[in-house]
Write a structure and sequence with these properties.
Blueprint lengths: L4 E7 L8 E7 L1 E6 L5 H12 L11 E5 L4 E2 L3 E4 L4 E2 L2 E8 L2 E9 L1 E2 H4 L3 H6 L3 E3 L2 E4 L11 E8 L2 E9 L6 H7 L11 E4 L14 E8 L4 E11 L5
Length: 234
């Protein structure tokens, strides 16, 4: 049995008052993929990755089971290749009946991805904000939330991804499609939602700035992290 990893986050209720502590033991880390609602845009993203040699999926969405120890709220990660990239996603913390939401990045090795998508996901940390929101505060205006990612490469920062959450599957849809075998309802599940299309194709960045914006309640969750290539021999 995989040992759960306990994450300690702050619950920010409507952006008011002192954030409350959340100790969340993660028994299952799941990364979803191919979650776009717009079939044309989804196919464009599939084609974008296929140009990099990444096989097209046989079904959508997909759910990949990864190791909870990959999760981190740190602001720096190490990789072993100059062909890795992050992608902004909403992240669900689910322990029935409670759901919290934060923002994160499913950092991936694009070279390994051409041979095995799950292996490419398993190689690197899954970054996320140290703050979260109760899903109950978001349900009535979920599709008005927006994801954004800025990427910095060689000192130049640019908008990399931007889309409303109306463009990808909702928490209810993702959780409904999640295979339940081996997942207890009282166990902590961390579910990365899958991402949105990039502005200009895959870019291998030096750092990433992530944002989940709630324009209705006038607040945002943010996280930034740098990427360092780890020398393989010393």
């Amino acid at each position: 049995m995989i040992t759960p990893k306990t994450l300690r986050l702050k619950i920010n209720h409507r952006g008011k008052g002192t954030p409350k502590d959340l100790s969340f033991p993660v028994s299952h880390l799941i990364c979803a993929g191919w979650v776009g609602r717009d079939r044309e845009a989804l196919q464009a993203h599939i084609d974008e990755l296929f140009q990099l040699g990444i096989p097209k999926p046989t079904r959508v969405p997909i759910y990949m089971n990864l190791s909870p120890y990959l999760l981190t709220t740190d602001h720096e990660i190490t990789v072993v290749s100059d062909r890795s990239s992050g992608e902004v996603e909403y992240v669900l913390l689910w322990r029935d009946p409670d759901i919290w939401v934060t923002v994160g990045s499913d950092h991936t090795d694009r070279d390994i991805e051409t041979r095995s998508i799950p292996a490419s996901k398993q190689m690197y940390a899954k970054c996320l904000s140290s703050e979260c929101w109760p899903y109950e505060e978001l349900k009535d205006h979920w599709e008005q939330l927006a994801l954004r990612c800025w990427i910095t490469r060689e000192g130049k920062r640019a908008l990399y991804q931007q889309a409303s959450l109306a463009s990808i599957l909702s928490p209810a849809e993702l959780l409904h499609g999640l295979p339940k075998e081996g997942i207890g309802h009282q166990e902590g599940v961390m579910l990365f939602s899958g991402t949105v299309a990039t502005q200009s194709g895959i870019v291998y960045g030096d750092s990433y700035d992530l944002e989940l914006e709630d324009s209705v309640l006038k607040r945002s969750l943010q996280h930034s992290y740098q990427v360092s290539i780890l020398p393989q021999y010393v």
